[in-house]
Each structure stands twice: as structure tokens, then as C-alpha cells.
Design brief:
mainly alpha, about 130 residues, single chain, globular, 434 Repressor (Amino-terminal Domain), Cro/C1-type_HTH
Amino acid sequence: MESAEFHRARKKLSKTQKEIAELLGTSIKAIHSYEQGWRSIPPHVERQMYFLLSRQRELHEKAPKPCWTVKKCPPSRKKKCPAWEFRAGKMCWFINGTICECQARKNWKEKMVVCKKCEVMSQLLV
């Protein structure tokens, strides 16, 4: 997540920098630094922002379809995927080890490259 995307997400959540700092359990200085691009946004903060956006989306919009429906995953792939195991198809991007594009990713950064291009998560970023 880049600084501009972080700023847009905070605005979309209708939160001040102070309010988002409290929600994320961090300092307002950290929020300033993220938005100014002085500090990289840690994976746990990025993940929490996406989580908050997903919850807001489900409150105000039609709930998204599970990822296995959107991606038309065959039963053999679904059985290996943690999103299927935990019935988290609307939040597959939140779970490490999902079998997106036919393989699990090694870390959060690699996973986000794939997830941000996916129609399941892309709705959060609009």
C-alpha cells in the first residue's frame, strides 16, 4: 500500500488521522508519516486498513461473491485452499496461503501483488 492509497482508504472510511490511529493502535505521527510517504506502511497496518474497508463495504453495498465462485475454482483447488477451509471467500485476501493463480505466495507483499489485480479485492480499492 502506497501513501496515496492509504490516504484514500482513510478518507473512504470517513476517519480523521487521529481516529484512524486509534483504530490501528498506532500513533498519529505514524499516520502522518504513512500519508506523507516518509515511512513505509507495515503489512499489519495495510491488512487492517483493508479489513476495515471490507467491513464498511458489506455494510453499505451488496455482499461480494466468494472468491471460489468468482474465480471458478475446481473442487481439487478449493480443497487445498485455506479460504475454502475457513469459508472466507469474501476475505480471501486476508488469509495467507490461499491458492490464487494456482499457487500460494511466500509473503504478504507477494500476495498483495496478486490480490490487488483480482476482482474479489479490487472492489475494496475503488
